[in-house]
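2.7 Reproducibility. Because tokenized structures are sensitive to small changes in the input, we list the exact sequence used for Myotubularin-related protein 9-like isoform X2, including any N-terminal residues retained from the expression construct. No trimming or masking was applied before prediction.
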Amino acid sequence: MEFAELIKTPKLDRVTLLRSFHPPVEGTLCITGHHVIFSSRKDSTEELWLLHRMVDSVERRITPTSSSIILKCKSFRVIHLEIPNVEDCINVANSVEWLSSIEDLTLLYPFFHRAMFDLMEDGWTAFLPEMEFSKIKSHSDEWRISYVNRDHYLCPSYPQAVIVPKNVDDDALKTIAGFRHLGRFPVLSYIHKETKAALLRSSQPMVANGNKRCKEDERLVNAALGTGKKGFIVDTRTQNLAQLAKTKGGGYEPEMHYPLWRRIHKPIDRYSTLLDSLMKLIEACNDTSGSVDKWLSKLESSGWLSHVKDILTCACLVAQCLDKDESSVLVHGGEGMDATLQVCALAQIILDPDCRTVRGFEALVEREWLQGGHPFTVRCQHGPFVSPAARTKEHSPTFLMFLDCVYQIHQQFACSFEFNEQFLVLLFEHSYASQFGTFLGNCDKERKELNLAQKTVSLWSHVNRPEIIGTYLNPMYDPNNKVIWPSVAPQSLVLWSGMYLRWVLNPSPQMAAWETIAEIREKNKELRSKAIRLRRYLMELEREAVDMGVLKPPPLPEEVPLVGS
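Resulting structure tokens (single pass, no recycling of outputs):
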């Protein structure tokens, strides 16, 4: 397909751009195969470059006296373009609609984008499973790396290398894959460094109404338990939904076959329920004409913070089982590709200080989300402005919900994270539309088939450059090696204004405040360093003076007589 076929009007003059925090500006509009580009062609005025992929919906406003289009973005941004000619306006709207809904991933911008910087690190090889396994091996030798999923024939949504108990062979894994939904057999997600308790994740067992049994599956999950220990199975569905799943061939682990495991149901909403909630939230955030009571009512009725609370509560429970109870945990729901990944990733952030660093968090996203099989292309196909006709059950802001939960922990422990909230916003935007290939595809198998590592640039290669990563560092960071326990009380959870209100409320004052904090911290660092150098210099001068006899050495402290002597 040629992009030119979809672009009826590639260039327009005398177009007026209206956007948040900027005065209206007249200029030239260009439609390319991947971008909407606007330029006033004047000095000191910025251009607008918007990826078609970021556009969620296009609204046309045609009247006898004017014509305009409104571009509503997956990033919650709303852009107005006033176009004098009606025919041109319709052509532009149609082109953007067509180009924003292209399904062939090889036609998207990451396959055409070329890095304009020297690659200091290849992000595609920065967080391989083998590298993560070497860390686990230093804490426990009860695990091995298996390539039973080589070529992804056993489980398409798993990576080729997975970490499993050492005493479970590959033939057993093949049997277990047939017993678990979509072949997602239990794999290791995390080992607690202190308690050695294991965190595993999988999909539901296919026990059906007859309570089918798989002894190999029972042996695998029991291998994660220490001697004389019991574990917890955390099911992210309600008990009724888990029971209903048995009628469709799924279900949960029967107690009679898993006697060493206690099952706990911690229901977490997913799929279209989250998208409905996000749509209501963004509608409330964009409504600036109502009263305070109306705003608070809309915020509450969206249910967004209730979903945040449910996920954080479940993650805290998992972390508590691993840390306080010193017990292994298996997490799953139905497919194990949404709520399961949210909970497992958040539990690691609570427990592991390495996950609260920039590189550790990148490794976590790579390990738990990208290699863990979260279907980014499907889930992030649309945002809160999508029309009902274009929606499907598969569209869901699952990853955004995870980032919001991370933000909640971040704002409660502001000094324990090396990265700032802008880093989380960056990941959110690139998961929906990007010039990089990191979030393309639904699983590792698709990314291999698309040959992304050779044909696109990794987001990690870009963001980890010294001149870039500094923008996303937290000036208040003070390494904290302890477990951090976030509060899930209603008073502790807040609306993430830096995400949902950034196109409604001008963020400039807050950004200026953070810049001032960064300057103060940097100045403090310089003064501390200077003070240390001055102390060393003074000590050297004192030693030289003593050696020359100019200064007597300080007298030794008098001996304190012992009691009773």
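The chain has a mean pLDDT of 92.
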